[in-house]
């Protein structure tokens, strides 16, 4: 090419080239650019395909498929499986519909919908691939060590076909949907019997969900809105529902999540159905309501039980042990039957929490029978019947870990009427059930690392802990709010939920000289009107950290002023002190009582007298009822040795009064999640049984319940 030709290319801006003969040719620049673009696009496509193929291959290898012959599991091996940090309540999850879920794809006009039912109801009762229960603990441990595996599997679940959902999008049904993008699939929706003269009254946002080995074992639905309360009771009657599982609170994070569709006091009527409440049992994490549903047209009545899990936080996932304990209660009251009616399950949208619970319930019951589970496959199956079941990766992870907890769950509750005989029988046993329980308790104790104690180990909190071995776990510590110059929001204390819906314990160490101010901030900020002090006075300890003023004296810490107004003996070994605590500019003073036990020497595993301990519990309960405040601060020297015993006894007695049964093992499981240093040895564990036995014996089998 000549220099004149090059000049002409430049002058023409690269559009065309004219050779010396005047022939027009396509510019080499455009050709080269186009070829380069094609190559780049091709490479990107190949890379994406390769990555997708590798990811699928990795998931298949990691999930594995085992021969049916390997499915026989040894129950003892399952029961003795040990694991650490099963509690995973540490992730944020939008409790409604995530913005980045595939619901946007489902509601788009370009979606390809599937109508064929052959891809939905498939091989019911067939042997599914999956993981043997013998290997399930190892499988979950591997998943925990590589969190990308949860994400990879969950991404695969997103790639499900979108089934038609025309009915939910019809104009006359829009007000019956709680969310604008969550609809029931047409092929599996629950179709209500139409009301007279109302042709559009057959719709409710609900779907039948298959179990692993049976059809229509569950109904997944949204929490009723004000337009659909009557519809849910029509569905309950039509489907002969006996039990309802509710997984949302009425209001969360300031938003209404579900209308109250049951009566609180007086009966309520919806169309030709009247609903009455005959009983309610409120526990810390769930409430059970027994309802009577009357069809006034037929003059027939049925009993319906609602299991309302209240322990699911506004954001994130619940405590694994609490969710499994709730599952155990539902299963105990509703044993599996071959001809069972559907279990009705709902949250707010009826997809995320609902899918998680149904997955847990279905896979646990199937796993107990067939000794193997396939979590991913069952979630796929649920999503073929209702969109977005198990809504996000945190719920998917929770499902795996909750299953492990469920397979290790030990039924340890003892009816009050059976307790004395069971307790007396174990005295003559060479290896008692109490010993076995304690050994299992030790093997399942959580192990926390330094990353769980960031506040306790922060430089500004150095010197605020009596022992570096007993620290406040970040997740469960109470935060201090009242400002006092030179302080932080940290105190070495942990929050322990009560068995009751209201109330909790805040367990703390005896204050050091530098933390007396923090102790009183704790009492005020967390509305503690009752303080239980377990260790008898120690002169050396008192000289280094006296936290109560003398009779008639006052002490001030910033805006807080504490005055001792009364000191008296209320029992042989119990002293009661009363304080007025006032915060400047915040109304009247509060009356706070401390109950001091005199026969439990610091460092001793148990008190000198069971009678004194029970008297202390009685005094605490009496003051709680009088002051109408159920938060109790429990204090011993190190915040663990004696406090663990007291809390275990008090919680076990709560269960005894509420449900006429005792479950000491799971009481300690819950306590260990909050502070693993509670209950140091079998002697302490056995002492809790001794106290409960004495309580039943001294109060009579039906006494004080």
Automatic annotation (TrEMBL):
Keywords linked to the UniProt accession: Hydrolase, Membrane, Protein phosphatase, Receptor, Transmembrane, Transmembrane helix
Pfam families found in the cross-reference section: Y_phosphatase
Coiled-coil parts of chain: none
Catalytic activity as recorded in UniProt: O-phospho-L-tyrosyl-[protein] + H2O = L-tyrosyl-[protein] + phosphate
EC number(s) on file: 3.1.3.48
Residue ranges of every copy of the Tyrosine specific protein phosphatases domain listed in the record: 321-397, 611-686
Gene3D superfamilies: Protein tyrosine phosphatase superfamily
Domain Tyrosine-protein phosphatase: residue ranges: 150-406, 434-695
EC category name: hydrolase
Transmembrane segments: 24-50
Superkingdom, taxonomy of origin: Eukaryota
A molecular function GO annotation: protein tyrosine phosphatase activity
Keyword Ion transport included in the entry's annotation: no
Family: Belongs to the protein-tyrosine phosphatase family.
Protein name in UniProt: protein-tyrosine-phosphatase
Organism from which the protein derives: Mizuhopecten yessoensis (Japanese scallop)
